[in-house]
Hints:
Blueprint: H1 10-17, E1 24-27, H2 34-42, E2 47-52, H3 55-64, E3 70-74, H4 80-86, E4 92-98, H5 103-107, H6 133-139, H7 142-153, H8 158-171, H9 177-187, H10 198-209, H11 211-225, E5 226-236, H12 239-254, E6 258-260, H13 270-275, E7 283-289
Parallel strand pairs: 1-2, 1-4, 2-3, 4-5
Antiparallel strand pairs: 5-7, 6-7
This protein binds S-adenosylmethionine.
The site of S-adenosylmethionine has 22 residues, from helix 2 and strand 2.
Amino acid sequence: MPITHIPVMGQEILEALMVNSxxxxxxxxxxxxxxxxxxxQKAEGCTVIGIDxxxxxxxxxxxxxxxxxxxxxxxxxxxMKPAVNELGxxxxxxxxxxxxVSTLHLKADNRGFSFMKDEAxxxxxxxxxxxxxxxxxxRYPEKELADLVWKYGEERxxxxxxxxxxxxxxxxxxxxxxxxxxxxxxxxWRRGKIxxxxxxxxxxxxxxxxxxxxxxxxxxxxAGLLKKGGRLCVISYHSLExxxxxxxxxxxxxxxxxxxxxxxxxxxxxxxxxxxxxxxSAKLRVGExx
Length: 290
Ligand SMILES: C[S@@+](CC[C@H](N)C(=O)[O-])C[C@H]1O[C@@H](n2cnc3c(N)ncnc32)[C@H](O)[C@@H]1O
């Protein structure tokens, strides 16, 4: 069965983003193309530049959305401005960032993001990149591991987990997701419904893909690419990301670059959260170029 991704806050995005029916929009996290499909359906005259650093996602989207109005680019969104300029566009009407992992990362085989799977610890969104989660887990010094699990996973047992990883890798290199999940589960036994490896896996993913640095650079680059009146919509999924978006928007407002449209972030409706539980933690912030 083909892997599909239900676009989060699809209707809210179309309303917030599409200021111009024949505009140029950048879907900087096109993934499996859920949001872009909605944009192309809503306005036939518009153009979408879809960026992703995941080759596999781009291949699927290329097959799925055949449109003369869609350009697909493999790149990091921190490089959005030069990538869009290279296609001949100096400014755009709207930019969407729907950050984080996609269903593809969690469900496809051999991507190594999920602690439920017995496969190689990978977690690279861009498979041409060198650094993998296996490298981080087996090579980082204990203190560095503990710090990143604390900082990017907000995990209170970070030191215990780092110690368990180091003592285990002294006996044998840790190579699979399920192996790492079992080491963590043994070190900090399960409390409540959430698997004890959840936060550590989040931290490793953020580290491997430099997600927070990418996000900050994308907001700055995106703000420089928007036309007057153009919109930047960012959907984030955890507090670390949302904090960056909130502060970056405030800074842009202070500099007179942005009007913040969403004083408080928009969240999915109750109905959407029931239909698509992965939307549960989503927060949408929208800024408009002055
Ligand atoms: C949540 S998914 C997007 C799903 C998409 N909106 C849809 O409806 O199908 C996030 C996508 O962003 C991509 N991504 C994450 N960080 C990126 C970055 N720094 N540069 C480019 N793409 C990135 C991931 O590979 C993934 O495909």
